Amino acid sequence: MTLRVGLSAVIVALIDGAPHVLATRGRGAMPDGLPFGPFEPDTHRTFELGLRDWVTAQTGFDIGYVEQLYTFGDRGRDLPTARLDDTSAAERIISIGYLALTPEATEIGAFDAVWRDWYRFFPFEDQRSDASAAIRSDIADALKAWSASATSSAEKQERWTRACLAFGLDGRRWIEERVLERYELLYEARLVPEAALDQGQACEGRLSERQIGTPMRSDHRRILATAMARLRGKIKYRPVIFELMPEAFTLSSLQDAAEGLLGYCLHKQNFRRALDKSGFVEGLGSFETATGGRPAERFRFKREILSQIAPSGIQTPQKRGET
Amino acid sequence: MTLRVGLSAVIVALIDGAPHVLATRGRGAMPDGLPFGPFEPDTHRTFELGLRDWVTAQTGFDIGYVEQLYTFGDRGRDLPTARLDDTSAAERIISIGYLALTPEATEIGAFDAVWRDWYRFFPFEDQRSDASAAIRSDIADALKAWSASATSSAEKQERWTRACLAFGLDGRRWIEERVLERYELLYEARLVPEAALDQGQACEGRLSERQIGTPMRSDHRRILATAMARLRGKIKYRPVIFELMPEAFTLSSLQDAAEGLLGYCLHKQNFRRALDKSGFVEGLGSFETATGGRPAERFRFKREILSQIAPSGIQTPQKRGET
DNA sequence: CCATATTATACTCATATTGAGCAAAAGGCG
DNA sequence: CGCCTTTTGCTCAATATGAGTATAATATGG
């Protein structure tokens, strides 16, 4: 069997404070996918160089911050129509996922690439809107039905416990980083169409795209979930959020960015206090007037601080009592 | 060019509270390596199953907790004697590194595998011993010399800043998680023999194995550094340390384990207070008498708590004023 | 059998950090 | 000018953290 290695990229940028990912547009029945290219051992000295190469070739711009996410290689992921026990496939493709952050959503030159709001693929991950509570409750119902459909009572119990942990049900807290766990649970419960495709079985038609999101090609939604989880975790212990911001920004726009990535609201005053203490930003003395209320001072990220201190991330004081 | 995928494992266990890794013993001039096996796309449905398979086959025991670390694929890593610009090699091996944790250092059945103290490969990572201060200062001298040998003054500056950040020099704090940064800096400065091998150049003979550690095959020391960094970080936000402990343990032995992994000492009373608050452990009512002083109560990890709360890790209140 | 060393565990206290909210400042707009 | 909106400054109680001191329970050696 031939083994091939591909590189897939989750390229994130903010558009009006909302996180977007670069997607290759689907055609006909084929859904959207992530930018994906083969790793060519002859020409690419490292994975990262290979990735930068073909992203530039395909989309026409240079990605900035890049980090490796995870390597995906389960059978089934590359051959949606193949049954899991079919070992006769002639080729196996494994894919190394990368996360890339760009400060602005540059216009895409060639190819069929588009910026998509990442909540299009995961509507339930946005806990800010009023709609989200309703979606969450619909998903909870579907997962309850799935739990009840288990054969043994221990299995029923176990399924429901996992659902509660993943989705913050039954008094448990919603943990924003559990993006992948949530997607994998929906996959296991066959509530997302990808699961049906992979296993050649019908999808549970309980939930609509408005609730469980638009599907993606192959296992790309899993890769995107991994990227979201990583980024949501990382902004708390590394100052990576600034890789997504323009040179000058207001504290409110920074907060909007953090809220967009995390999917929940922050306490404004405490966010500022924490940011102040961290020393990451510095006022520029100029002001943004087009905001409606009192003009906001523009700030910049003090990049040079990275060589001064032990860099941690920004703090994210969650606003309680709203959920 | 043929592309092959291998799986390498950093299997960690504690022996008398000191972290050890399973290594394949070197022969003659060939240094120790990590357990390494090919990924066989025909028989292995997932990477993890493949890994478990051949680890069991080679060493005779089942590994417990497993997580993917990173995928390594830079040219040069697989062919130590090849020059970087030599693209004529017939084969490229990329390797997916895994971290595995086992609760006890089981006797190894077959093959030439041995448990090695992980500080054998990274003596400077252990900040507890008195020797470490001396080692650190020797390394600082060597890095200073390397900085001074740069051509431009900006480059000199840049090198020294990086050295200070990585090794906590010049008033900066030592960050225990920067294991990989430290190793890569030593590699770049050609202070470790692996660098010399990879580039076909002579190693700077400044430092001895007692200071920079025993080398490993290929890029295995880089993989080990990645594993140490991951584990040192992870025990703070996930209760993975218990995967290394036996069923019943004393709080002192748990603290020993944490100190061994982190490479520095913790404040005993505060460590206990934090552990108490976390709710991770539960007293068993039985006591360990062979400790020399007052008998210590045995505790167990409350595994069931994982389905109750948002699991974080253990806190690690560093003991200051000793360095 | 008592002093002593050794380790375990309990409690204290000052100082930071956090969550939550109130109030003033500085614009635009009718 | 008064009102709405947003930014910014400040307070206050509740908790968490760093760093000790004190006491308890064992083994050991005279």
Describe what this molecule looks like in 3D.
The structure is a homodimer of 323-residue chains. By secondary structure, chain A is of the alpha+beta class. Chain A has three domains: 2-121 and 216-234, Nucleoside Triphosphate Pyrophosphohydrolase; 127-208, no CATH class; 240-307, Orthogonal Bundle (Arc Repressor Mutant, subunit A). Chain A is built from nine helices and nine strands. Chain A has helices spanning 47-59, 130-148, 153-167, 179-188, 193-199, 209-212, 220-234, 251-262, 268-278, and strands at residues 2-15, 18-24, 36-38, 65-72, 91-101, 113-117, 248-250, 281-288, 296-301. In chain A, helix 2 runs antiparallel to helix 3, helix 3 (153-167) packs antiparallel against helix 4 and helix 4 (179-188) runs antiparallel to helix 7. Mean pLDDT of chain A is 86; it is low at 78-87. The first copy, chain A, binds a DNA duplex (30 and 30 nucleotides) through helix 9.
Number of helices of chain A: 9
Name of the CATH homologous superfamily of the largest domain in chain A: Nucleoside Triphosphate Pyrophosphohydrolase
Q: Uncertain segments of chain A of ≥5 residues (pLDDT<50)?
A: 78-87
Outline type of chain A: globular
Under CATH at level 1, the class of the largest domain in chain A stands as Alpha Beta
The quaternary organization reads as homodimer
Biggest pleated-sheet summary of chain A: 6 strands, mixed
State the CATH topology of the largest domain in chain A: Nucleoside Triphosphate Pyrophosphohydrolase
Give the terminus-to-terminus CA distance of chain A. Answer: 51 Å
Mean pLDDT of chain A: 86
* Integer count of domains of chain A: 3
